[in-house]
Amino acid sequence: MRRSARRKKTISVSKELGTYVLSTPVRYSVEHNIRSLTNLFNRLAARDHSSAEDLVGLAEEMSRRYFDGRLRPQSIRWVTNQNISRWASTTTSSGDIRVSHRLQAVPRWVLETVIVHELAHLQIGPHSKAFHELADRHPRQADAKHYLEGFSAGEQFSRG
Predict the structure, then answer these.
(1) How far is the C-alpha of 138 from the C-alpha of 7, rounded, in Å?
(2) Whole-angstrom Cα distance, residue 7 to residue 61?
(3) What is the rounded CA–CA span in Å between residue 14 and residue 100?
(4) Which residues are CB-neighbours of 87 under 8 A, at least 6 positions away?
(5) Domains of the chain from N-terminus onward
(6) pLDDT tens-digit profile of 119-131?
(7) Where is the YgjP-like metallopeptidase domain positioned along the sequence (predicted)?
């Protein structure tokens, strides 16, 4: 929760690094408004694309759209142990894809590009020219690269 002296009447909720942040006026009583806040957070959680089932469904959709359904991971899951410079990783021998929980806060199209990139690793392991031809099938791949560079810089700035 973030209390703001500038905020007088309204509240807002945003998602920062995978966590919901409630911004309120200084005098806002959470206890008095707990029921409406609970409903608000429940609605937000229902819209969130961060569930494990959604991740599996998104991988299936990306495989159908960009690889004719040929590239399917054995498993795909959210993890919290990815290196700070890594958004996702694939073990080509087992077909397992791990996606950093930090990506739960990004727009869907960014997550799509990361999944397409990891699906491409199921066919070609190293980052070769042939690999990039596969991975770049998502039309916003270049945009996502820039987005993630900025997102990463923002994370580093917030850590101090």
Answers:
(1) 41
(2) 42
(3) 19
(4) 99, 100, 102, 103, 114, 148
(5) 2-47 (no CATH), 52-159 (3.30.2010.10)
(6) 999 999 999 999 9
(7) 78-147
